[in-house]
Amino acid sequence: MSAVIEIKDLSFTYGEKPILQVPHLTIAKNETVFLFGPSGSGKTTLLEILAGVITGQKGEVEMLGQKTQTMSSHERDQFRSNHIGYIFQQFNLIPYLTVKENILLPFTFSGKKLNSSLYDKLVSALGLTEYADQLASQLSVGQQQRVAAARALIIEPEIILADEPTSALDYDHRENFLKILFSLVKEQGSTLIFVSHDRSIQNLFDRQLSLSDVNAVRF
Amino acid sequence: MNLFKLAFKSIRHRSFATTATLFSVVLSLLLLFTVERVRRSVEDSFTQTVSGVDLLVGARTGSLQLVLFSVFNIGQVTNNVSYDSYDKIHHHPDVEWTIPISLGDGHKGYRVVGTTTEFFEHYQVRSSEHLKIVNGSLFTEANEVVLGAEVAEVLKYKLGDKIIVAHGSTSGESFEEHADQPLTVVGILGATGTAVDRSLYITLAAMDHMHDEHEEGETPEEHARHEGAKHEKEEDHAGHEHHKHHDEKEHEGEEHDHEAHDHEHHPEQITSFFVKLKSKTKILAMQREITDNKGEALLAVIPASVLSDLWKSLSQIEFVLKLISALVMVVGLIGMVIALMTSLNERRREMAILRSLGAGFSHLAKLVLLEVLLILGLAVITSAVLKVLLEIALTDYVAKKFGLFLTGSYFSAMDVSMMVATVVIGLVFALGPIVIFKNKSLKDGLAVK
After folding, report:
1. Based on the number of CB atoms within 10 Å of its own CB, is B32 exposed (0-12), middle (13-18) or buried (19 or more)?
2. Region B250-279 average pLDDT
């Protein structure tokens, strides 16, 4: 299996404070990884480095065989919008756009073609059909999280980075979300890194990774 | 969804900030338009106080002085023109018409002008506007007066009122009044925003009458009878010649009073006169001919060119008005830029979200420029529409209240360049925050602060 994500001697400091030090980490294509660890251990930081949201790290990070840190910020943004579906912990929806507009927003900036059957599938699986024309600012936290998930998945990304995507979901919605997430991963052959505190679902994943096992920095 | 729609939704979302920006830009543009309008109106009413006239002729004096007292009632009349000289030019084959004016009297601070009906027929203000009698009719008798708009308005005169003019005084109370010769108001002119509004018009004959005779307690009707008696008395002292001559003249005047009043009762002298030639090409030749006149020392000037020279010499006024315009514009644009910057800063996170979804610098720049363009475009259109509406609504009021006439096209070249400058400068300044934003990391932008 080829490596989709490869990290070598990665270190990242915030100011003087070391946050991450990962000597080696490889994630294979189509692998699903459950990443857990205590709060503040750098899980989100790792995802952000992978997504190119944070730059300035030392060491090597290869995504799909490309070094994102040497790209220009625009190239990095393009790379992300073409290949990475990032479900932000903060959702990052645009408040004045409707649910549908938020979900379809990535297509405004990337050359990708919308797969409308995928849209229908995502919206109905995530229970958003009736909210499609509502403004994001009028949604509950749980609804917003589902919109954020749909927006990350609609671009059919090769890599899905999900930062606590079920934190605000009730049991039913969580089940539905996981179901569609895994079916998409299977269909599209995507690679998934799923950050969560919820150890009850870890067995759905191919690999369970404790950040403290890979991160040399001790808090 | 395209960027245009996104920009529109984003503006709508920030309706308060958008409205505030819009409001401030519209206000400063309107302020600019106003200053520019006033500047144009002042210049127009100044340089176009008299138009449609080719030459102004008077006794030899400074050309500026001649224009000032003939057109603006400023300064003193030093010398008069003999009626003979006037008559000669009046009948010159190249002359289409003339308007004689005779000054010297005033009424409660306003100038009294002796003239003929030609004045109402030919005198034009602001390129091609003829004088209009809005109320009543022209004078026909020597005891009738037509009032300028401001005179009637301020002194609250109406048709049929009797007024008394004062000798030699155009400013303030006079010592010597022609109380014996009350004049009846027969007509009131429409406002023009020029010196015409501040004048009273009587016939040359009436002007002459008043200065012929300065005896107290005499009415024009008594005049003839009195005159006869006087002459009888004078017979003992003065020669026959004089009597005869005077009598004849008197007789002649009376006769013509019944026919063509304003043409035939010649005064000895008039102050100056306007000349319209049959052909514009003759202006310079005619000017030279009059100035070189062997008999009386006369001066002929082209009023429009003297006025325009004068306006240029008063260029400081224009400069100050333009400076005010420029300052208003700078302040307005600074306000606009501040409003834009503030709103862009607030949108740091939103921009970061768009970036995280793949929006590049060019996308964001386009988005912001589109938004600014929408706001400024709307502001420019709104202010232009408001300007036109306000001008339509306020033209009469402004003319009446301030004597400013809003003539010419709605938009001057300056107005248009100000509108363009507003948009261009707004767009340039809007790029600033985007450039700053470009160099920040996405993490910074996404952070919830």
Report:
1. buried
2. 63
* Residue B343 three-state SS: helix
Angle between helix axes A141-153 and A116-125 (nearest 10 degrees) is 150
Q: Does B172 touch chain A (CB under 8 A)?
A: no
Name the interface residues of A facing B (CB cutoff 8 Å): 48, 51-56, 73-74, 77-78, 80-82, 86, 88, 90, 92-97, 101, 104-110, 151
CA distance B134 to B141: 19
Q: How far is CA B93 from the centre of its chain?
A: 33
What pLDDT digit, counting tens, does each position of B342-365 carry? 776 677 888 888 888 888 788 888
Residue B435 C-alpha, separation from nearest chain A C-alpha, in angstroms = 13
Task: Provide the total of helices (H) and of strands (E) in chain B, helices listed first.
Answer: 17, 15
B360 touching A (Cβ < 8 Å) = yes
DSSP per-residue letters across A24-65: EEEEETT-EEEEE--TTSSHHHHHHHHHTSS---EEEEEETT
Q: Which residue of A has its CA nearest to B364?
A: A109
Residues B283-301 as b/e (b if ≥16 CB within 10 A, e otherwise) read beebbeebeebeebebbbb
Report residue B377's pLDDT band, with 50, 70 and 90 as the boundaries.
very high
Cβ contacts of A171 within 8 Å, gap of 6 or more = none
CA distances for B185 relative to B110, B147, B203, angstroms = 15, 7, 12
Q: B residues 4-33 near A, CB within 8 Å? A: 6, 9-10, 12-13
| Residue B405, both tokens | 């006439």
pLDDT mean over A125-145: 91
Q: Work out whether the CA dihedral A76, A82, A88, A94 comes out positive or negative.
A: positive
B212 closest CA partner among B244, B171, B253, B152: B253
Cβ–Cβ under 8 Å, residues B187 and B138: yes
CA–CA separation, A136 and A144 (whole Å): 7
Q: At what angle do helices B240-257 and B220-237 cross, to 10 degrees?
A: 170
CA distance B433 to chain A (A): 17
The whole-angstrom separation of Cα A157 and Cα A184 is 10
